Amino acid sequence: MSKMEVKTSLLDNMIGLGDMVLLEPLTEESFIANLRKRFDHNEIYTYIGSVVISINPYRSLPIYTPDKVEEYRNRNFYELSPHIYALADEAYRSLRDQDKDQCILITGESGAGKTEASKLVMSYVAAVCGKGAEVNQIKEQLLQSNPVLEAFGNAKTVRNDNSSRFGKYMDVEFDFKGDPLGGVISNYLLEKSRVVKQPRGERNFHIFYQLLSGASEDMLKKLKLERDFSKYNYLSLDSATVTGVDDAASFRTVRNAMQIVGFMDDETQSVLELVGAVLKLGNIEFKPESRVNDIDESRVKDKNELKEICELLGIEQSVLERAFSFRTVEAKQEKVSTTLNVAQAYYARDALAKNLYSRLFTWLVNRINESIKAQTKKRKKVMGVLDIYGFEIFEENSFEQFIINYCNEKLQQIFIELTLREEQEEYIREGIEWTHIEYFNNSVICDLIENNTNGIMAMLDEECLRPGTVTDSTFLEKLNQVCADHQHFESRMSKSSKFLNDHSLPHNCFRIQHYAGKVLYHVEGFMDKNNDLLYRDLSQAMWKANHSLIKSLFPDGNPAKINLKRPPTAGSQFKTSVATLMKNLQTKNPNYIRCIKPNDQKASHIFTDSLVCHQVRYLGLMENVRVRRAGYAFRQPYEACLERYKMLCKQTWPHWRGQARDGVEVLLKDLQIPAEEYSYGRSKIFIRNPRTLFSLEEQRKRRLHGLATLIQKIFRGWKTRTRFLLMKSSQVTVAAWYRRYAQQKKYKKTKSSAVIVQSFIRGWKARKILRELKYQKRCEEAVTTIGAYWHGTRVRREYRKFFRAHAGKRIYEFTIQRIMQKYFLELKNKTPSMSPSDKTWPARPYLFLDSTHKELRRIFHLWRCKKYRGQFTDQKKAIYEEKLEASEIFKDKKALYPSSVGQPFQGDYLEINKNPRYQKLNSLVEEKIIFADVVNKINRANGKATQRIFLLTKNKFMLADQKSGHQIKSSVPLAELTSVSMSAQSDGFFALRVKEGTTAAAKGDFLLNSERVIEIITKLYRAGLNLTKEKIQIEITDEFLVQFKQDKVCVKFIQTSPKNGTTASCKRKNNRLLEVTVPSP
Ligand SMILES: Nc1ncnc2c1ncn2[C@@H]1O[C@H](COP(=O)(O)OP(=O)(O)O)[C@@H](O)[C@H]1O
Ligand SMILES: [Mg+2]
User: Which of 57, 427, 682, 877 reaches 20 to 30 Å from 926, CA-CA?
Assistant: First the structure.
């Protein structure tokens, strides 16, 4: 056991007391008060040492979850709060690890939770034991055997809706690893009377209702059954349905479970046929039929039901019918047949039904065993679970109670025996002196019941076998004789006068003082029930059935194996099986679960003190506690004890270095606990009184408070100090980092300043050096250059004469010079005449002189012209200007023009101011005459010409009569002249157009003809320009319009060959056309 595992204990956070052993003072009141307190806090489990008391909570508590399984798994029994899982775990581990076969004994009255407890144990073991497909299948089969047995063996009673009506012991077998291998189930004492009769408010076995509710129509038909419960006499009607129970669904569950467990389909069918047959048996009724010799004989009333049963079971109807009417007794090789009266017939019917059912149940158990049987011959470890009735003390107690209570008496005995044995073994193991333990040993009661010579059971058997009239009262009489002196036996007759007044003890009763209390038994029915008689005719009839299952159930009906010896009585059968069971249990390590029912209402949260008190008494729980703490109330391994209480002593706290035992010794001495209060075992400390333990616990609690404060104090101090240290170290770190940063910054700044200063200085220095170097270099260069030049000069001077490099150029230049000289000289000699009109120019001698040659020609020409112009007088200049004007106007436009170029413009051809003939005209004109000549004026009517004198002054032109020489025919100011038209031919015709609306315009335009047309027009143009600053329009075209008075006449010029005359002639063609023929030049 490692130290860590002992950290928790049952003693922690206890509600009330987790272990009754610690109860102080130990009284029934304190016992029940503790149970109640725990129950009120949902603590339904309480220990008495290693015994678990379980109180039925009547509601599901969240304490069976997989988490809980994990919590209790592999933990020590006293480590956690009491739980059925702790017991299951302890048992399983002890089985697996220490190789000890286990049995779990679950007792308690009906409805106390035994069956649930057994299921919880099984499910816990299933959850913690091995895993794997095969193992799981075994587990499944073991668990699924429950629903099957519950359907056939459980019924609703007033105490429990699912009350087991049989005792059950199941051995689960494990291999060496702790994996389940299989199991064996034993059943005890099925309450078969329930088949034929149920007390008020109770039901028959579940299977009947399940079959009728859950079977398909088809199946019901096959079984010849009807769904209606009320059709069957054996089914009580007042509580046929149970609230919260779905019989139909349960039927499916059962069939499914049967399949899992391994029932074949035809087996299941046979079982259900038998169940049906039992139900139908109840419906067979009898009627009396008087016979001659006055003996009552019974007859089956309605043979239909009988017929159906026979069909169902494959029995010949007559055989069964006969078996219900006659009874054959064989004695001394003689067969005597007697008739049965109606009551006997009913008795026989019910006996058959009960037998049939109970044998079927036993068969079922065997069949299940066959399925769940371990498949190996190897040694197995066994865990037995016993779920059996606890003590039953009813108002009326009969044979069944007697048997059950006997069984419980035996269980108590084995409990005491085993507990004491274990106790003693532990003392021996631990080396503690065995002190005698005072306790009540109930073997004397067992003896009263089972003693072979004068025990109650022996008496009963004797009475049953005795020939002659035997009744229940003869049996009682016998008891009175034999057992009268027994201190636990009481009857009205046994103890003379003492009981005569005791009205609680009626005449037909006897009372046994069981270890758990006194029980009054009514003797009525003892004989019958013990005999458990089934007439042989009936068993033979069953054996004859053509139905394999029913045949196998009644082997005693086989006439070949007829046995004249009576079958063992129910009592002796039970005694034997109990003896076997006890023997079996004795070889195993027992684990007890004591179930208690808290109330009679099947209600949660209700705790009825009186009821619990009653159970505590008959379960012998007080006895349990006493036995348990007969010597020492409490024991604990040294390690656990030291671990738990070490803080109570300076030497052991916080660590004890030596042996745990020495530590405990030091501890107990230090605490000054009286020496008689404890004993040192080999591995455990034994504490005599719970008080001592509690004082230890109390001191521990107080000390824990102190320790908690101490731990808190130290922790707080530690926490604060840690924090402080952390902060301090943080501060140092921060400061260090900051200093580093500041220094770094400062250093960087200084460094950069230094670098700047340095760089400036370096720069300044470098520049200075550079300057010096440059200067030096320049000096050197200068010296070098000068040297070089000087050297070069010297060398050139010396070597010039040897150089021809420039010869080419000089030759070239020379040659060019010569050529140019020659060119210019030649040009001089060949210069053309000074006349500007001379176009000649010597040819170009060399191609490269082309542009020069042209330029020289141009210069020459300009010079020549300049020279030429320089000779001119102003008069001549004016003439030339006019000539130039004329050229601009007419050149290349009029064919006449070239011929005019050579003729000088004389202007006044008539010499007006000299010629006397024109003296008068001259005086008339007054202005200076620019031009005067005779022209032809074309007659507008016929195109004939008349001569006129044309005069031009700078302001106007005039036409004067030529003949008279002075008459001015028309005078037109130049400002009124708009345009002049003429042909492009060599003719001298021209038209002068006058502005419309002027006085001159009245006569229309003038069409004139003159050889000197060029001069006239030029002068007219110049005069007009001088006067008006506007150019007179000059139109040169071969066809133009002339305004004659109102008409416009077209003048058209036509070229003719020269042979038609050399002068141009004008002819009027029509009103509109004047045709001028011009000979081509
Ligand atoms: N541990 C438990 N938790 C919840 N309900 C329980 C518990 N034990 C018993 N019961 C209830 O009590 C009823 C009777 O229990 P059962 O085990 O059949 O009693 P017994 O076998 O002792 O006659 C159960 O059907 C169930 O409803
Ligand atoms: Mg039960």
Answer: 877
Query: Mean pLDDT throughout 663-692?
Result: 85
Q: Which residues are catalytic?
A: 110-111, 115, 160, 163-164, 390, 392
Task: Give the whole-angstrom CA distance, residue 180 versus residue 171.
Answer: 11
Q: What is the DSSP letter of 8?
A: S
Q: Could you tell me the pTM of the whole model?
A: 0.64
Distance of CA 895 to the CA centre of its chain: 117
- The torsion region of residue 74 among left (phi > 0), alpha (psi -120 to 50) and beta comes to left
Q: Which residues contact 1037 (CB under 8 A, 6 or more apart)?
A: 981, 983, 984
Q: Which ligand is nearest to the CA of 154?
A: 2
Residue 654 has which token pair?
Answer: 């916080």
CB distance 163 to ligand 1 below 6 Å: yes
DSSP, res 846: -
Query: Token pair of 839, please?
Result: 């176009």
Q: Are 274 and 208 in contact (CB under 8 A)?
A: no
Q: What is the dihedral of CA 709, 711, 714, 719, to 10 degrees?
A: -110
Q: Is the pLDDT of residue 564 over 70?
A: no
Question: If pLDDT is split at 50, 70 and 90, which confidence band does 562 have?
Answer: low
Q: Which residue has the higher pLDDT, 694 or 285?
A: 285
Distance, CA 450 to ligand 2 centroid (Å)? 26
CB 465 within 8 A of CB 571: no
User: How close is the Cα of 115 to the center of ligand 1, in Å?
Assistant: 7
pLDDT tens by residue, 630-666: 777 778 888 888 888 888 888 888 788 888 888 888 8
Distance 166 CA to ligand 2 centre (A): 8
Q: Does ligand 1 come within 6 angstroms of the Cβ of 909?
A: no
Nearest ligand 1 atom to the CA of 109 is 22
Give residue-wise pLDDT tens across range 416-460. 788 777 777 888 888 887 766 667 788 899 999 998 888 899 998
Phi, psi of 393 (to 5 degrees): -125, 100
Q: Where are the alpha helices (DSSP H) in 451-547?
A: 456-465, 472-483, 526-531, 536-543
What is residue 559's three-state secondary structure? helix
Is 160 close to ligand 1, i.e. is its CB under 6 Å away? yes
Tell me which of 21-25, 52-56, 212-216 is least confident. Answer: 21-25
| 841 Cβ closer than 6 Å to some ligand 1 atom | no
Rounded to whole angstroms, how far apart are CA atoms 595 and 117? 8
Q: Which ligand is nearest to the CA of 598?
A: 1
Tell how far the Cα of 110 is from the centroid of ligand 2, in angstroms: 6
637 in contact with ligand 1, CB cutoff 6 A:
no
Q: Which band of pLDDT confidence, cut at 50, 70 and 90, is reported for residue 325? A: confident
- Residue 156 Cβ inside 6 Å of ligand 1? The answer reads no
Proximal ligand: closest to the CA of 390: 1
C-alpha pair distances (Å), 877 with each of 213, 852, 867 = 162, 32, 13
